[in-house]
Structure formats: C-alpha cells, structure tokens
Design a protein that fits this description.
By secondary structure, the protein is mainly β. The chain has no helices and 32 strands. The strands form eight sheets. Strands 1-4-31-30-29 form a five-stranded antiparallel beta sheet, with no helix packed on it. The chain has a five-stranded antiparallel beta sheet with strand order 2-28-27-26-25, with no helix packed on it. A four-stranded antiparallel beta sheet has the order 5-6-7-8, with no helix packed on it.
C-alpha cells in the first residue's frame, strides 16, 4: 500500500456564529496500480477499520474488475480481492453483514443474461466469495445500492432496462440470505427513471432515493419512494424545478428523511450540492443549496453525532456533470446550514464518493484521485479530525 501525496486541502469557514479551527488531516491513502482504479463507496467495519469497493484495471482478469479493499483503522491495506471476467465489472456499494462478511453490489458485463447485469456478491470476513448472483434480463441492468435487512436477506436497488414500462425504471430486488430473488419491483413512467440508494426504515419498510424524468416539473427531478416491507409503494414525492435535479443518497432521521444530491434549478443557477429534509410522509421541511464553483455535486449524506450532517461530493470548475476536479467534504448543522467545507485536489483531479463519521468524532472521506504514486486514477481515502469550535 502506498502513502498518497499531500492532497492540497483547502478549508472554508462559512459559519457566522461559530469559529472553527481547521480540521487536521490525520492520514491519507491511495490504492492502485499502473492502470485506472475508480470508485470509493466505503463502510465502517466491526474491527474499527473500513472496506471500500470500486473497479480496478491494474489487477484481476478483465478490462476492469470489481475490487474490494479492506483497510485497518489507520488506512493500512489488510487485503484486497478482485471479482470478474473478461468484461467490465464494477462495485458500487459495500456494507458489512451481521456475520462479519461483506455484501457488494454493482454490475457485470462478464456474466449474466444481458449486456450488463446487476451483480450481488457475498464474501466472508477475509473477502473470499461465499456466493454471487446475477440479476437482470436481456437489457442493461445495474445495482447501485444494497444492504442486509433485519430478516437476514438483502435488498438491492438500481435501474433496469429489462423490466418495467419505461426506457429505464427504478428497480428494487429483495433476496433471501443466499442471494436468491424473493421479489422485485419497478417504479417509473415512460421516460428514464433511476434508483440510486435504498435503506431499511424503522418500520421495516424501505426508503428509495433517485431521480425521475417521467414525473415532476423539470427535465429530471429528485425522487423519494417509500415502500412497505414487501416493496409495495406507500408514497412518493418529487423535488425540483425546471432544470435537472437528483438525489444520490438518503438517510432516515428521527423525524423524517434527509437526502443529498444536486440541483440546477435552485441556488446560483449553476449545479450545486443539494440537501433536502422531509418529514416521514415525504413533505419537504427545508432544502439547502451549497456551491463554490460552476458545478458542485453531492454523492452521500450521513448523520453526525451533533445532529448535523456530513456530505461527500465533488466540484467541477467548468460546470459539467461528468468531470470532477476537486473532492468536497461539507459539514452542516441540523438545519442544513454549512459550518465548514474542505476541498481536495489542487493541481490534480479528485472525487469524493462517500463519507462517514468515525467513532472518535473524526471524518473519513473516500473516492478516487490521480494524485497517487502509481499512475492513472487510484482509490483514495483520507481521515480528518474536526477542529475545536468556539462561540464568537
């Protein structure tokens, strides 16, 4: 494992009532070889370390293999595993299972029934495959999010061209503990609709985040869907304006839901990071737009111990949705007001994909970077400790 280069941390103070000391970067790490590695979904593990997933061109059997990397609490690599065949295989989500193994979701062009199929892999605690299942039909299908449910099965969310009624529909699949499909549901209309994140809620149902071109008022609108435990829709709500808006991550809160993504309808008129807070019925309570450049995008949101939120994303200097320049980590209070932001990139390219708060109160940001030592893009993670705050 290689120590990454210093990442050009820039720190912005945006709180009017509190003075924040600059967070201290405890460590940063990059993982990769001579080819490109991209991804960055991260989860905490029971042993105090972390697990990441993505795609590697440097290792494995194909043009790009799904990559799973286990690291310790200091970011040191413990082991890594590749999964795939001759095609392109990508990991988009990873969580630790109750038995200490890992559940990885993504897509494969090496196996399955269609051009691209959703792929669900269960490993043991050392990353060795216990089982894997391809999900999909003759069209292109992919999984962006998966987690273990209280009944021991798994729920998988993504998009499908094989089923449903539109060009692409939100796709929800429930499996048993061995990855065998129990049921699946599609949500959408005649245009493109996509599910980005799913989590089980306190009532045993599910909350789904994504975007829709079939409903709402704009080109794309952010979309939340609430289901019962069997995946039957209880309500849905769209959020947005006349331009493109979407949400990529959702978390349940004590009084509702918080979602993070992007908006081109509100704020400065350019793309901005967007936080949306709702009640338990999906009624919007507030939203917050956060921008520093021509294009800013939120990828994940997590609650913090002080009642606020930590948001991972990236900023694009030219305003496009397809070209990250700097990784972005944003801390807000409980009302979505920015307390501080940290940027990473400098003369290189970095993207923030996911973030979490560690048990010691610090924050871990993961994504990918071309500022490592091996060449191309590498998986990347950094640990920050929040500075002391004092009232003015």
């Amino acid at each position: 494992m290689r120590m990454g280069l210093l990442l050009g941390l820039t720190f912005l103070i945006l709180s009017a009532s509190t003075t924040w000391a600059q967070p201290e970067e405890e460590w940063n790490r990059t993982f990769g070889g001579p080819g490109h590695e991209v991804g960055g979904p991260i989860s905490k593990t029971q042993d105090g370390g972390y697990v990441l997933t993505g795609m590697t061109e440097s290792y494995g059997a194909g043009n790009g293999d799904l990559w799973l990397v286990k690291v310790d609490r200091e970011g040191g690599r413990v082991w890594d595993r590749t999964f795939g065949g001759k095609g392109v295989d990508v990991g988009e989500s990873v969580t630790e299972a109750e038995d200490g193994g890992y559940i990885v979701a993504g897509y494969t062009t090496s196996f399955g029934a269609g051009g691209k199929d959703a792929w669900l892999i269960k490993t043991d605690s050392d990353g060795n495959t216990e089982w894997d299942e391809n999900l999909g039909g003759a069209g292109d299908d992919a999984a962006w999010s998966a987690e273990e449910m209280k009944d021991g099965g798994y729920v998988v969310l993504g998009c499908t061209d094989s089923y449903g009624i539109g060009k692409g529909d939100v796709w929800l699949v429930k499996t048993d503990a061995d990855g065998k499909e129990v049921w699946n549901r599609t949500f959408g209309g005649p245009s493109d609709d996509e599910g980005m994140a799913v989590t089980e809620t306190a009532d045993g149902g599910l909350i789904i985040a994504g975007r829709t071109d079939s409903y709402g008022v704009g080109e794309y609108d952010a979309w939340l869907i609430k289901t019962d435990p069997e995946g039957n829709e209880l309500w849905d709500a769209t959020y947005g304006g006349t331009e493109q808006d979407g949400i990529c991550s959702v978390q349940e809160t004590d009084d509702g839901y918080v979602a993070a993504g992007f908006t081109n309808s509100f704020g400065s008129g350019e793309y901005e990071v967007w936080l949306v807070k709702t009640d338990l019925e999906g009624v919007e309570l507030w939203n917050s737009t956060i921008g520093i450049s021509a294009g800013d995008f939120g990828n994940s949101v997590q609650k913090t111990t002080d009642g606020g939120y930590i948001v991972a994303g990236w900023t694009s200097r030219d305003g496009t949705r397809a070209s990250p320049d700097d990784a972005l980590l944003i801390k807000t209070d409980s009302g979505g007001k920015v307390e501080w932001m940290a940027l990473f990139g400098g003369d290189g390219i970095q993207s923030g994909v996911s973030a979490l708060q560690d048990e010691d109160g610090g924050y871990v940001l993961a994504g990918f970077s071309n500022r490592g030592e091996a060449g191309g893009f590498d998986l990347w993670m950094t640990k920050l400790r929040e500075g002391r705050k004092e009232a003015d």
